[in-house]
Amino acid sequence: MTEPYAALWDQCLSIIKKNVNEKSYNTWFKPIKAIKHKNNVLTIQVPNKFFYDWIEEHFLGILKKSIYQVLGPNGQLEYKIVVEKPKALTVPHPFDSNTIKNPFVIPGLKKSKIASNLIPKYTFATYIEGDCNKIGKSAGDAISKKPGGTAFNPLVIYGGVGLGKTHLAHAIGNSIKERDPDHNVLYLTTESFTTQIVNALRNNSINDLLNYYSLIDTLIIDDIQFISGREKTQNIFFNIFNNLQQTDKQIILTSDRAPKDLIGVTDRLINRFKWGLMADLKAPEFETRLAILDKKLGADADKIPTKVKEYICFNIKNNIRELEGVLISLMAQINLNDREPDINLAKEIIQKFVTQETKGITVENIAKLVADHFQVPLDTLSSKTRKRNVVIARQLSMYLAKNYTENSLQNIGNNFGGKDHSTVIYSINTVKDLMDTDTLFKETVAELEKKVEMSLLH
Description:
The protein is an alpha/beta fold. It folds into four domains: about 80 residues, GMP Synthetase, Chain A, domain 3; about 160 residues, Rossmann fold; about 50 residues, no CATH class; about 100 residues, Chromosomal Replication Initiator Protein Dnaa, Chain: A (Orthogonal Bundle). Strands 5-6-7-4-8 form a five-stranded parallel beta sheet, with helices on both faces. A three-stranded mixed beta sheet has the order 1-2-3. It is elongated.
């Protein structure tokens, strides 16, 4: 015999069924059960908080309509979030996750272990820190010691292609697992996450998917920008995000741009991305690139001349993946083809990775290079100012122009405010004298010469 409260809910369902499509009805209303009716309040059981949030957000109007028609104007609906009995779970997942047995956290039962999908080689030990990534690295260290317990939740790591976003995200996950093997970390790409949702919608198993994500302690999603324009994925992720946040679970996202620049993503999601820390990864500076190169070379670092490594780092500036690709090709040529690790080999390999212009060095190039080094405005080198740092920069520019270009002394002088050839000669001799008497100045000249030579090779 059907209980009276069940019959009332069946009447509500018949109204709801006429106002929503079949897939929505099967996914969001069929699993709901009525469990009590008292004082004109109908109590229904929903499987979890995700379910409750989703229904309240998307179907509140039709629920109110059905309650009004069945129970009258004073009727009320009450939710009870109850965990069902354990059951086997098949989760639509892009990886082999045979360790997943139970979708629910039941008191007294051992928590399910979930395959993390983390790449073991991406650790903090292999991650080179520099000014370009200091904030992200420091936040990652803090999170790995106390996931979900810092102000960096969510952590959004963003930056251009090949700057180490994925490496840093994996490093945080691996560090967490090293400290606490029972901590459930899950890494997946946005594409894989979307595939899960599509499969769950197709199989009417959204409830199982939401229960699965309730097990996650730290969720890492790579390339979140690809969620753009995917309305259903964004809606489900919104609920997953809220649940993890409310239960002090850690969320880590990577993106190729700042959250404010994401197009096709709802404002409510973007606002949540801004709740924690947005860590901007920039292109690594020269010294960091050189450190990365040595780290990747490992024991082979001494086999490659310093000039060759510097040449590579001068030419590969904005992409660590390209830097690694050049290195792999270089070592292959050295080890397999018995090539000499010289500048010519490096240049040959780099030309396959980046488009370069073939151009000689000019007086203008040298002047800009020196002005940048001394941090003075370029136009001051052509002015009449007698400030010492500007005078030294101007004299050095003339000295380098004489050594590295085919310009006459008069042409060189013309580039620096119309100085005559005697002034250029005086400047060149002054630089030579300073090099003989000042060790630090001599090192500065050597450094600038190296930069000019790299420009010539480029």
